[in-house]
Amino acid sequence: MATEVLVPVLGESISEATLGEWLKQPGDAVAVDEPIASLETDKVSVEVPSPVAGVMGEHAVKVGDTVQVGALLATVDAGGSAPAKTEAAAPAATAAPTAAPAPAAAPAPAAADESSDSPAALSPSVRRAVLEHGLDPSTIKGTGKDGRITKEDVAAAAANKSSAPAPAAAAPAAEPAGSARKEERVKMTRLRQTIAKRLKEAQNTAAMLTTFNDVDMTAVIEARAKYKDLFEKKHGVRLGFMGFFVKAATMALKDIPSVNASIEGDEIVYHDYADISVAVSAPNGLVVPVIRDAQDLTVAGIEKTIGDFGKRAKDGTLKMDEMKGGTFTISNGGVFGSLMSTPIINPPQSAVLGLHRIEERPVVVDGQIVIRPMMYLALSYDHRIIDGREAVTFLVALKNAIQDPTRILIDL
Questions:
Q1: C-alpha to C-alpha distance for 387 and 259, rounded to whole angstroms
Q2: 163 and 71, same structural domain?
Q3: Domain that includes residue 197, residue range
Q4: Do both 64 and 23 map to the same domain?
Q5: Would you place residue 117 in the very low, low, confident or very high pLDDT band (cuts 50, 70, 90)?
Q6: Do residue 157 and residue 208 come from a single domain?
Q7: CA–CA separation, 137 and 135 (whole Å)
Q8: Residue 101: which CATH number?
Q9: Average pLDDT, integer, range 112-129
Q10: 133 counts as catalytic
Q11: What pLDDT digit, counting tens, does each position of 212-251 carry?
């Protein structure tokens, strides 16, 4: 009996998605709740599980198609997978004698090998890594569950490819048209399209301005070096810099409420809570999950939440509800080596804080030139509701808390 697999409910206000990838092909054995397809929405990738165990039926849509919630994706024939494999092997066995009678039994194992490769479907993150490195997934040996290829397998294959110059050098010699230039066209994912649309809307709508400051990271670095081992032992998570910045930001937002506000029509909405959006890198682009009520969390609670977000962003398991809302955003480009930037507001928020790399620079302290680990801070804000004085005051309050972390403890 064939069971229909429909597009699941994707979240509030999300009515459609794009089929990013089929994880199971017709004839493949499928277990209950095993992912058979990956859907790309405006925010995250969602894997669609099989409602029953059996054999994958026909696909109703193609990769890249836009599908509505409740639409038919495919069918799954309930029952064992053995009949499907037997049927697939039978034609190969009957076709073989016409070409070569002696090895009639050989095609059957070959067909089995091909079907055993098909369950090693690529997850969205692995698929992206394969495309970025220009690798052929059929040449990569999977070490994951049921032989599935992991991101570590892709990284290892890419490393082997770069460390083997002999084949690469031989290819141009054998290819007479050495001057041939290639282009590749890849359709933008729904997530990337949404990012592009929202960022451009922010530029078109907000009266955006960026103000800068720098901060001496000496105190935070010393505190982290002194307590990181005890912190990890007690809380089970590493002590990073983001915990300090998020906590300091919630204190500054309390003092300067307009930075935590938003515009709705002709009204300004002020929030007595700080839901901090943190930009996290995911395989398909930047995602921005939200730390709810960050003002009530300790530094340890903040670090645990961010660590969980980062892990699940790479795995593609972030939930829709975790992306909604947010009253203020912190983006850390410093982890990629950025020295300075002008971040773009995440609508309907009115401000975003950009963090950058830490580097030693000469500064004047008490009339003496000394070397200190410095970081540039950038605050982009909507000038329609945030004045320059308020933006600068916010940055100064944040800077004071980071340069003297005791302020965070005594709420000063």
A1: 9
A2: yes
A3: 193-410
A4: yes
A5: very low
A6: no
A7: 6
A8: 2.40.50.100
A9: 54
A10: no
A11: 999 999 999 999 999 999 999 999 999 999 999 999 999 9
